[in-house]
Amino acid sequence: MAEQVSTTFRTATPAPSSAKSGPSVEAQNPDRPSVEVNAPIALYEEVNGRPYAVDYFDVEGIWDDPDLDMRDDMQLIDKAYRSRVQNQKIKDGTDTYKAFIQEAEKATNTKNAPTSVKVAKLAEYVKFMEGLYRIDRNVRKYGIN
């Protein structure tokens, strides 16, 4: 049975008291209140009604726009992450989610790409990787050499 990890999402951080610092997080986005959710990322969509990738990439206002076609990509990225968690290849948490995304960004050379391009490429990458994992599972299951 998979170990459940308590994770905090989108918590407010106090602004530095330095006079030369930029505006605080609250001042930059006053319409988005800080919400603390104690649930594994694998359950984030059930709790919040959207994949964690939406908040990770900060595309809450556009992710479900049919013209951008991001909805399926966001869900595919989170599904691949959940699959790896359920197969106990990685522990569930914000740090491992970030590492999962960074690994995919490195493989697809999308670290500095526009978000819509990055999300589309990451979705294709995780689709490809899931196919490879499926082949590996079948080899182990059926002993194919």
3D architecture notes:
By secondary structure, the protein is mainly α. It has one domain. The chain has helices at about 25-30, 45-50, 50-55, 70-85, 95-110, 115-140. The longest helix has 28 residues, at about 115-140. The model is unreliable at about 15-35 (pLDDT under 50).
Topology:
Layout: H1 25-28, H2 44-48, H3 52-56, H4 71-86, H5 94-108, H6 115-142
Summarize the structure.
With 145 residues, the chain is an all-alpha fold.
Total E-strand runs: 0
Task: Count structural domains.
Answer: 1
Radius of gyration: 17 Å
What is the mean pLDDT? 78
Sequence of secondary-structure elements: HHHHHH
Distance between the termini: 30 Å
Beta-strand content = under 5%
As residue ranges, the low-confidence spans are 17-37
Structural class, judged by helices and strands?
A: mainly alpha
Main sheet attributes: strand count, strand direction, barrel closure: none
Percentage of helical residues?
Answer: 40-55%
Shape: globular
State the helix count.
Answer: 6
Keywords:
mainly alpha; 6 helices; 145 residues
